[in-house]
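On clarity, I found the account of how folds are encoded harder to follow than it need be. For illustration, here is how one protein appears when written out as sequence plus structure tokens.
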Amino acid sequence: MNILITSAGQRVSLVRIFQKELRKVIPSGKVYTVDTNPILAPACHISDGYRQVPKVNDSNYIDLLLTLCSDWNIKMIIPTIDTELIVLAENFEKIKNHGIIPIISTLNFITICRDKRKTNNFFKGRNISIPQPIDKFSPKFPLFIKPYDGSRSIDVYIIKSKTDLLPYHYENDKLMFMEYIDPIDHDEYTVDTYYNKNGKLCCAVPRQRIYVRSGEINKGVTRKNEIIKEFVDKLSTIEGAVGCLTMQVFFNRKFKQIIGIEINPRFGGGFPLSYLAGANYPNCLIREYFFNQEIKYFDNWEENLLMLRYDDEILVRNYDK
């Protein structure tokens, strides 16, 4: 029972975590990786084997993935980037029919997550506040702009005055204009959640984002606060949600309320902090999908655990390309 992590890139910690947890229960288990450029992907060099694959929108991507899964005896696929989620969900039955479990939410739920306009409607339907939309032709400042299908903080702008608005902002129909959430009054959080096979919330770990680099947490700390109750009360069940979901929220320190920002139905780059705090989602996946064990709600993870990330090196010998 081996595991494949796709689009491995820099997910070195995630690969090592899955290797550790898999070998606790299956000593011979291996964690393999694929990437469009594996030679330059650090996570590939610490996995148990890697292969190059085309981009996820290539017509041969799924068939090639299935061939690699057969060669490596893969029984579980873990996606790591937004762009592959819809493709994997569309091919869920095809992959499952080969005896492989893709840890992927349903296509309907992923479509909600990938379009931030639909995500806003989802939050509103759960009585969770969202940033209020702003008419771009009659703006109030400051305001915030982001694309409805974006990721990694690309095409994100803080607009402080009318002089900051460019023709590009008006002409790009993908850009959403919304109220600016002031960090003076709010803290930014990523909440690592685990949903079992039945779409039931089993764990929620709020990670306060102290410093972010390229859209990914660089310094953060776990907190047990009112956010957890909000999730238990309003997000205890999500139809179609599977495995690890990372949700972005702002937390108003005075009123103890959350503002929903986005949902990423996959492992986030900062998940190692939640894992090190005791939220062992890889173990949950292995127990639930390999051994058919029921995962129930748990909250015995460590609060106030601070993570400070730093750059490290992966050396590859005899590189001649």
Summary: The mean pLDDT is 96. The radius of gyration is 20 Å.
